[in-house]
Amino acid sequence: MSSAESPAITTCSILHRDRFIVIVNKPAGVLSHPNTARSTEHAAFEGRYDLEEKCFDSPAGKVWLIHRLDQDTSGVLLAALDEKTAAKCRALFDEDAIQKQYLTLVRGNPGKEGTWLDHLATTREKGRVRTGVIKGRLPNAKLDFQTLAHHAGEKVSLLNIDLITGKTHQIRVQASSRQHHVLGDDVYGHFDLNRKLKKDLGLKRLFLHAHRLTLKHPASGQKLSVEAPLAEDLAKVLDRLGLDWKPT
User: Fold this and answer.
1) If pLDDT is split at 50, 70 and 90, which confidence band does 3 have?
2) Looking at the structure, do residues 133 and 222 belong to the same domain, yes or no?
3) Where is the Pseudouridine synthase RsuA/RluA-like domain (predicted)?
4) Residue among 88, 78, 97, 84 at smallest CA distance from 32
């Protein structure tokens, strides 16, 4: 179903919709939800947003946001169309029972595959959100990665990330702490390399895309896997690098 068929719910491209859930492809630059109840900033779904209930009051009815993506991250975003389904979906996230896979282009070569474990802590002050790695504490953040392609000349690698936990800015912070900064990251990134690749490859934003979400459907119990195609601007960067790749 295309977004044109349901303009009252979202202006994002709809990847899957049924009676219980709707899954969209959120573009970079669009908020998952407004930052304040009175905000007029463009968000993934239509209508006023209730920060406490995590729910949009769209013209076509309420839409419960199940998780979020950073504003500069594109890709798969899940919402529920009734409160009971929302509770089931959120329980799946709390149990880490929903598989979230990302594509990201990073600095250097982290190896063929591996697992990153860290303790992350997030601070919020005057609208500024930052996450850092705390050494010497038990891990609360985990991801697995596989390297899909490496460019020896530019010294960059395309990774498939299996995000096991869901901490704020997790992929970006875990990558940067290992000197494998996500390219285009204007907060935790390698700024000299960002400037170089913007000039050489036209990379103008964060190279981080939520490309697949897999879950047990909250109503049917059947496995559901939904993919969001890589955004055109990011695909062009890979083409310019001449990388032969495909997600796993």
Assistant:
1) very low
2) yes
3) 21-176
4) 78
Q: What does pTM read for this prediction? A: 0.91
Check residue 126 and give its pLDDT.
73
Lowest mean pLDDT, pick from 6-15, 34-43, 128-137, 178-187:
34-43
* CATH number for the domain harbouring residue 9: 3.30.2350.10
Catalytic residue among 18, 70, 96, 144: 70
How far lies 197's CA from each of 193, 204, 210, in Å?
6, 8, 21
Say whether 239 is catalytic: no
Read off the pLDDT of each residue in 16-30 and give the average, rounded to a whole number: 96
Q: Look over the chain and give the mean of its residue pLDDT values, rounded to a whole number.
A: 91
Q: What phi-psi label fits residue 211: left (phi over 0), alpha (psi between -120 and 50 degrees) or beta?
A: alpha
Distance between CA atoms of residues 66 and 184, nearest Å: 27
Max Cα distance, the chain (Å): 52
Total domains in the chain come to 2
Both 106 and 90 in a single domain? no
How many CA atoms lie within 13 Å of 167's alpha carbon, on the beta-carbon side? Answer: 21
pLDDT tens digits along 67-110: 999 999 999 999 999 999 999 999 998 887 899 999 999 999 99
The token pair at 224 is 């559901």
**Residue 87 CA to chain centroid, in angstroms?**
21
